Every structure is written in structure tokens, then in C-alpha cells.
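Batch job 17 of 40 flagged for manual review because the log was empty.
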Amino acid sequence: MTTAAAGGADEAPPADKQPSGGTSVPAPREPVSGKPSGPPGAGQGRTRRSVTGTRRAVAALFLLPALVLLGALVVYPIVYSVYRSFFDQAGTGFAGLDNYKALFTDDTIRTAVKNNAIWVVFAPTVATALGLIFAVLTERIRWGTAFKLVVFMPMAISMLAAGIIFRLVYDQAPERGVANAVWVGVHDTFAESAGFPKAHPLPVHPLKAAGGGAFVTKVPVRAGEPVQLPLVGVLPAKMPGDAKPAKAPAPADGGRITGTAWLDFTKGGGGKPNVIDARELGLKGIKVEAVRGGEVVASATAGADGVFTLPASADGAELRLPASNFKEPYNGVDWLGPSFVTPGIIGSYVWMWAGFAMVLIAAGLAGLPRELLEAARVDGANEWQVFRRITVPMLAPVLAVVLVTLMINVLKVFDLVFIIAPGSSQDDANVLALQLYRSSFGTDADLGIGSAIAVLLLLLVVPVMLFNIRRIRKEGRR
């Protein structure tokens, strides 16, 4: 009995039976972790090696094509460009740092570096600011979605197409260039323009040159004797639209001087010089001055039929057509000239990328807590204070993303500059990416210089990329 009892104490009772009068004993369970319940480490090494080894092999298999392409298209060109930048134009002689010294001594490359600095400072800032303004303002209008669509549409246009569009927009001729058409229209609204820029008399006419672009009568005028002031050199299409056929003036009483200024040219021929023919038009608006002793004693403006009248004080004076009648009309701004070509191209870039900034900022704006904005308004803050002290600080991460993305983008800008800037001012609009192309593939290609420019461009992009990566990691840890 003792032996049996002792032996029974070592054996666990069956799971479906309970010892009489004792406490129930639970059945043994499997470990929660799913690991085998044998001795520590038994069978684990083989399983871990199998699972881990399979995962590494599969990962390497899937990554291999991408790694090959990355090495062939990114790593190898970078390494070779660095290597090639230390050799001369032919690639046979070691040049040391001469190519890098040329980057800071060559005037053309220094202009490219300066223009790149202008691009990095102004283009991303202006595009981000406009995107922020558009995103905030379109939140409160019913047609905001349509406006955002219109602003974002230039993103669907390639750089090549945008360059061609703005090459026409910035055309010098107001009849073709939209920018100058608007500018000239505004200018002519507030400043009177000359009507007859190329008008001049013929030798048989009673006028002669007076210097400075003006013309005077060959003899002094007398009261009671009508004066004729014929001119040529104005295209009929350029005549004022409301000009009327010229007519000879009637003699004026009271000692006044009358006369006619007209275009002494008959379309189709057949007219006679110094004679007012039926189809010849008056020079409407031309200014006539009476000059005596070098001083203007009277002045008048010709009507639609070219007739003008001067007071009696003009008797015995010479009549002068001042140079203001013949100056070239205002032709707008030379947008593609040396002074404005870089700002003009930056304007085309902003036109394309402001929509991109607007969409990203609008997405961030949609995620702002509205109760915080409403609480600020309830506390008495006006809209400008809400925008400056709440909206902008809370949108700071989104604004940083947009700004850094555009900074990286403008460092590589090439298409717009190459297409918009004409050959005469391309050196003034030069940027590093364009200079890289010109140095590497131009008529006098120097791959050593081109490789050095590529390395410099890489060094300029890397800090911005590192800042972006650091910011992304910082945001991920929040």
C-alpha cells in the first residue's frame, strides 16, 4: 500500500477524473508562443536558419533587377563623372583640380551659378507663396474646385510646350506677345503715343528738317495765306481710324493763320505733290507750333480733316512740326533681353508649379482642426491673425515639403531656359543644367568641365535631399 501510494503520488490523475475530496488539477497546456516545449534551443537553430535564409534569398531575388538598374543608371554615372572630372578635354591627361577651378573663374559658368542661386531663392518661394494664397482663398468660394483645376492644369503641360508658349507670350511685338500687348495697352492709357513715327516731307514740300526730328516751314507764314503742311511715309493702314479726307482751309479773319496737314499720298497712285487730292487723308492729331526767335508763340492741333488754326500772334512766325509727332511708339518691354530674361523664365516656371504647391497645401489645409480656428475667431482674432498665427504655423511641415521639393526641382531646370531664352541672351539666362549640356555636347565640348559641373550640381542637391530625409524621419518619429 505504501509503495502504491508513493507511486501514485508521482503520476498525474487523468484529465477527465478528479481525485475524491481533493482540489482539481488542470491539464497541461501547450506554450502560448507556439515554441516546442523541449529543452531550450532544441530544434530552434535549424528552423530560424531555414526561415531567415529563405527570406533573404527571396528579397535578394526581387531586389536584384532594381539594384542592377540603380547601379547602371545612377551609381556608375556618378562614379564615372567624378573620375572624368579630373581629366582634361581629351580624357587622356590628368588635370587635377583644374576643371573645378574653371567653375569659379570662367565668366559663363559663374553667371550660371549666380542664376541658379536666384532660381533657388525666388522660384520656390514665389510658387509656394502663391500656392498657399490660392489654397486658403479657394476654401471659401463655391467655385474653388474649378479654380484649383484651372491653376493645376499647367502641370499637365510638358516643359517643352510651356517653353514654346512663353516664348510667344514674351514676344517683343505687341501684336504677337501677350505680355507686351497688355503692357503697351496700360502704357497708352496713361501716356499719349505718337501717331506718325516715320512721317517726313519730300524735297518739293514746303518743309525742311530742323534737327532733333522736327520739321519747319521754309518761309514764315502770313495772315490770310492758307498754309500747306504735306507729309509722306505713313502707311494708310497706320493712319487714325477716324481720319477724314483732307480739305483746304478757308482764309481766316482777324489775322489768324489757317492751314492743312495731310498725307500727300494717294493709294494706287495718280496724286500730285503739294495738292490735296480727293482720296488723301488729314493727319488728325498732329501738333503744329508757331516759333519766333526760338520761342513757341502759339500752337494748335489738326482736326480729323487735317485743318488747324493759329491765333494772330503766329503772323510772321515759322511753323514747326515738333519731334513728338514722329517718335517711335512705345513698344513694350524687352522681356527676353539681358535684363529681364531670368525673371521672365522664373515667371513661366511659377505658372507651371504654383498649382502643384496649391494642391499639396490644400490637402494639408483640409486636415487642420477646424475647432481650433473657430476658437481663435470666437476669441476675437481677425482672419489675418488666424492665418498668420495659426494656419501658417500648423501648415509648416507641408510648406517645408513643397519648398524643398521645388528647390530640388529648380536646381535641375533646363528645358525652360533652353527654349525660352533666345540665342542673344541665353548666356545671361544660363543655369548649371544648361551649361552642363553646352559644355558636354556643344560645338567645343569639354567633358572634363561638363563632369565637374555635374559633380557641383550633385553637391548642391545632396544637402537639400539630406535635409528632406531628416525632416521625413523626424515626422515619422512623432
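Reviewer: the log was empty due to a logging misconfiguration, but the result itself is present. The longest strand covers residues 257-263. Unflagging and moving on to job 18.
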